[in-house]
Write a structure and sequence with these properties.
Elements lengths: L18 E5 L6 H11 L4 E2 L3 E2 L14 E2 L2 H9 L3 E7 L2 E6 H9 L4 E4 L2 H10 L4 E7 L3 H11 L4 H15 L7 E4 L3 H16 L7 H11 L3
Parallel strand pairs: 1-7, 1-8, 2-7, 3-4, 8-9
Antiparallel strand pairs: 3-6, 5-6
């Protein structure tokens, strides 16, 4: 059981964790925001996706992604081992079920760094657990500049990513919350506020029912 402040010491059943989903077009800041949010809330765990693409410089297997070959990925599909999966730029990406379900049952929140398709499938699979936040760039010009400054992709790949960014942004209104990442510190603060407000939802704190029953019992 998590020991976060949203559990009641009188009712140790605590609360169920949530799927805290962050999505954005590539380069809009969701990965950095996810990492900083976890720094502020060390009780959060991150959902580590599986992928069939090769690791990029600096990426670590098991931390950034679980890097697998296509055969193993497809075996896990056949075993219903993913909440969702998709093929993007010739590579597969998927969200594994087992570690997420274990964390939620323990009352731990799980953060997801996934695209709109994955977010939609998660919300369909677990509507009571998913909270979706979309991060918008302040402008497409700045987004293109960020991708170029990374120095990781060729010009044609950047063009493909920009086309995909516009397609992803068109799904902004499917999300529960939308943040414009014009000022990083402010965007981080707003996302942190969303996290804590969602932890206080009545439906995520089942111990309240027993608490209220005890309140009434005091007058008997």
């Amino acid at each position: 059981m998590s020991n976060d402040p949203y559990h009641s010491p009188r009712y140790p059943g605590g609360r169920r964790g949530m799927m805290f989903v962050l999505s954005s077009p590539s380069g809009a800041g969701k990965t950095t925001l996810s990492k900083r949010l976890m720094d502020k809330n060390p009780d959060i765990v991150i959902s580590v996706s599986w992928t069939t693409r090769a690791a990029r410089p600096g990426e670590v297997d098991g931390r950034d992604y679980v890097f697998v070959d296509e055969a193993r990925f497809k075996d896990n599909i056949a075993a219903d081992g993913f909440y969702e999966y998709a093929k993007v730029f010739d590579h597969y990406y998927g969200t594994p079920r087992a570690p997420v379900e274990e964390a939620l049952a323990e009352g731990r929140d799980v953060i997801f760094d996934i695209d709109w398709q994955g977010a939609r499938l998660l919300a369909e699979a677990a509507p009571d657990d998913a909270v979706r936040v979309f991060i918008l760039p302040p402008s497409l010009r700045l987004l293109a500049d960020r991708l170029k400054k990374r120095g990781q992709d060729a010009a044609d790949v950047i063009e493909r990513r920009m086309a995909r960014a516009e397609a992803e942004i068109s799904h902004w209104d499917e999300y529960d919350y939308v943040i414009v990442n014009e000022d990083f510190a402010r965007a981080l603060e707003e996302i942190d506020l969303i996290l804590h407000a969602e932890r206080l939802r009545r439906t995520r704190r089942p111990w309240l029912e027993g608490f209220v029953e005890d309140l009434f019992a005091e007058r008997k």
